[in-house]
Amino acid sequence: MAAATTVMASLRSSSSNFPLSLALLFSLFLISTTKVNTGAALNDAVLSVKYKYAGRERSLTTLKAHDDQRQLRMLAGVDLPLGGSGRPDAAGLYYARIGIGTPPKDYYVQVDTGSDIMWVNCIQCKDCPTRSSLGIDLTLYDIKDSSTGKLVGCDEEFCLEVNGGPLSGCTANVSCPYLQIYADGSSTAGYFVKDAVQYDRVSGDLETTSSNGSVIFGCGATQSDLALSGEEALDGILGFGKSNSSVISQLASSGRVKKMFAHCLDGTNGGGIFAIGHVVQPKVNVTPLVPNQPHYNVNMTAVQVGHTVLSLPNDLFEIGDRKGTIIDSGTTLAYLPEMVYEPLVNKIISQQPDLKVHTVHGEYTCFQYSESVDDAFPPVTFYFENSLSLKVYPREYLFPFEGMWCIGWQNSGMQSSDRKNLTLLGDLVLSNKLVLYDLENQAIGWTEYNCSSNIKVKDEKTGTVHLVGSHYISSACHLKSQWSMFFLMVIMLLHALVYCDATTKRDC
Ligand SMILES: *[C@@H]1O[C@H](CO)[C@@H](O)[C@H](O)[C@H]1NC(C)=O
Ligand SMILES: *[C@@H]1O[C@H](CO)[C@@H](O)[C@H](O)[C@H]1NC(C)=O
Ligand SMILES: *[C@@H]1O[C@H](CO)[C@@H](O)[C@H](O)[C@H]1NC(C)=O
Ligand SMILES: *[C@@H]1O[C@H](CO)[C@@H](O)[C@H](O)[C@H]1NC(C)=O
Ligand SMILES: *[C@@H]1O[C@H](CO)[C@@H](O)[C@H](O)[C@H]1NC(C)=O
Ligand SMILES: *[C@@H]1O[C@H](CO)[C@@H](O)[C@H](O)[C@H]1NC(C)=O
After folding, report:
1. 3-state secondary structure 262-280
2. CATH placement of domain 283-446
3. Residue 83 has pLDDT above 70, yes or no
């Protein structure tokens, strides 16, 4: 969870502190040119087709059949097995299993819509974790073990794009470096590699077939103080951000998937559904994404507590060039500007006049209440452009702590300088909803949903609709462990980290 935040707080590798850090990186990752693939687009599928038809005459029908099949594969849905839980009392993170390399090995990566690249720890890494209490086996990526792994040279398009242009010292015979610095000063650095990433393609009702696409990702050769390396360590992070460098963008630009994905995070049982493709059931209403923002930002228009609509100024959610409300699966709690937070929390608390309110750690509003919170407190509903609403029930915005209930809303007005007044909705309020990210139409939407059930994903080519079910990939029962100080520590960490990112232009 703290990791979730660090991710969210990650700077883009093209950020302003780059030149300095690069000097350091180059000294670490000068790699001779012989292995660098200069990117003559080698397509796995085409190669295998050549092999298949070698020495045989190709009729137009077989060609057509191949094209159809290829397009079928290209536009089909993807089912990512999901584990973990977004609950702040537990690990507070969701992760997915993916295969990398040929032959493929399994890696467990945190799914994060707040960051833009994928990275996994590499064999060179001395300080990377090798064990995890999540009940999963960690693997260090070794390019030598993969027949499809290639280094990415500084002269490749991807490197130029991710760095926003050529970098001094980053020449054709040098491997393209990556660097992510997080808000707490922790970091991961290494170099980009390109390899086959294997995923489960949806091929029938609750059925998948293994498929793969070539993806460029960071190979982590050094890291420091990453929360992701703690006891609940994972292999890396799978960025599902909007930028061209994210895995979803890479798979979509090679025509393998639609630039659409959805998650349904099961707030009660952990795990859930994460699917790439066109979700047709449940149906969701969508709201447009605010253009030119680094994250998934939408315009909030109103806030309602129970039956009362809060009166808020029009420009409340505009702070400089930062616009709208950030939707981020990599963050746990929900952050609201003081002008929303104050009346919202007052209204909630005033429902029960006898409530004894405590402030825990200076910022968490907590109270004792022994009956059903859903009966005693009002739901909170956020409204967005295009009449999309998000209803959050008391059981979702309250979390138990030391025999009390604490309120999951956080006051972003308490933060300093340009982190102030940010609006961000994380896992806690996004749980138990099917959240759809439609990058083809630049929109995002959601609907209340049972994340332990199935959704339907449409195959664009054939029009066939298939069921995709929920997963829980880890047996780690400690995820349901009781509340402990661990939670507050994590929350505090999170709190300290969460704001740095929102602007993304800062060196936190
Ligand atoms: C990279 O190429 C430059 C110019 O050709 C050369 O000076 C340099 O030594 C090379 N570096 C490595 C690590 O091979
Ligand atoms: C990737 O897909 C190609 C073409 O379908 C296949 O030949 C190859 O074995 C796959 N590689 C992996 C690692 O799954
Ligand atoms: C991403 O790629 C698309 C298509 O290749 C291109 O039009 C767009 O400018 C790129 N965006 C960025 C931010 O590089
Ligand atoms: C969101 O709000 C801003 C500022 O009021 C406005 O310019 C924009 O058109 C709205 N909608 C979207 C989708 O950006
Ligand atoms: C934050 O909101 C307060 C009102 O609650 C306002 O006075 C202040 O100027 C805002 N700060 C920034 C940086 O926008
Ligand atoms: C959610 O779906 C699962 C699987 O279909 C079912 O067992 C469970 O009862 C459902 N939960 C609710 C609250 O409807």
Report:
1. EEEECCCCCCEEEEECEEE
2. 2.40.70.10
3. no
